[in-house]
Design brief:
Strand order of the largest sheet: 5-4-1-6-8-7-9
Radius of gyration: 16 Å
Structural class: alpha/beta
Shape: globular
Strand content: 15-25%
Order of helices and strands: EEEHEEHEHEEHHEH
CATH class: Alpha Beta
CATH superfamily: Spore Coat Polysaccharide Biosynthesis Protein SpsA, Chain A
CATH architecture: Alpha-Beta Complex
Number of strands: 9
């Protein structure tokens, strides 16, 4: 039996507080929205997890999935929205990617899904170097749809840390090489640095 096609969900629900409240996924990098870079690199994006007016993402031609819980509870709610949507499509899991991380490895989705299948666990989390050392990047992960009840329970109890909930369900870590492979844009200074990285072909 052939493997199920990968379903990528781009997590774009952040409020952009450290960038003055701007719509961060639509901030321009090299004349192109940040989220456009992420969709292209992911290669299997099937939906965008985001709140607010979905029309602002219309040019990308993907469904926009709002949180099913109020109060912007964070990326874990976005993962749950993606899992609920994927389950309705008959999928067995999703790969998530953060909309503010424009340089992540192009083989990320394939490697995460393969690692979860090989280890027979419901979650595979990416790890990679940061200025503070190697750490997990839990918004880059493969999630089995069987994790939905665990995510729903955690959110109802006020637990929002993606890594902690993934750990409780059983996971495998997947190491990605390179200098800050999951560099993300949180501030205007980060955006300027991203412009320099893009110009340098990093």
């Amino acid at each position: 039996m052939s493997p199920s096609p990968l379903i990528g969900i781009v997590l774009a629900g952040g409020l952009g507080r450290r960038m003055g409240g701007i719509d961060k996924p639509l901030a321009l990098l090299g004349g192109r929205p940040l989220i456009g870079h992420v969709i292209e690199r992911l290669g299997c994006a099937r939906a965008i997890s985001a709140n607010g007016d979905p029309a602002r993402f219309a040019s990308f031609g993907l469904p926009v999935l709002p949180d099913t819980l109020p109060g912007h509870p964070g990326p874990l709610a976005g993962v749950l929205a993606g899992l609920d949507w994927a389950a309705a499509q008959g999928a067995d899991g999703i790969v998530t990617a953060a909309a503010d991380t424009p340089f992540f490895p192009r083989d990320c989705a394939v490697r995460l899904a393969a690692a979860a299948a090989e280890a027979r666990v419901p979650v595979a989390l990416a790890t990679g170097a940061t200025p503070d050392g190697v750490r997990r990047h839990p918004t880059f992960a493969w999630w089995a749809v069987t994790m939905r009840p665990r995510l729903r329970e955690a959110l109802a109890a006020g637990r929002r840390r993606v890594g902690e909930v993934a750990e409780a369900g059983g996971l495998v870590e997947v190491a990605f090489p390179g200098d800050e492979p999951f560099f993300n844009v949180n501030t205007l200074a980060d955006l300027a640095l991203a412009e320099r990285r893009l110009a340098a072909g990093l």
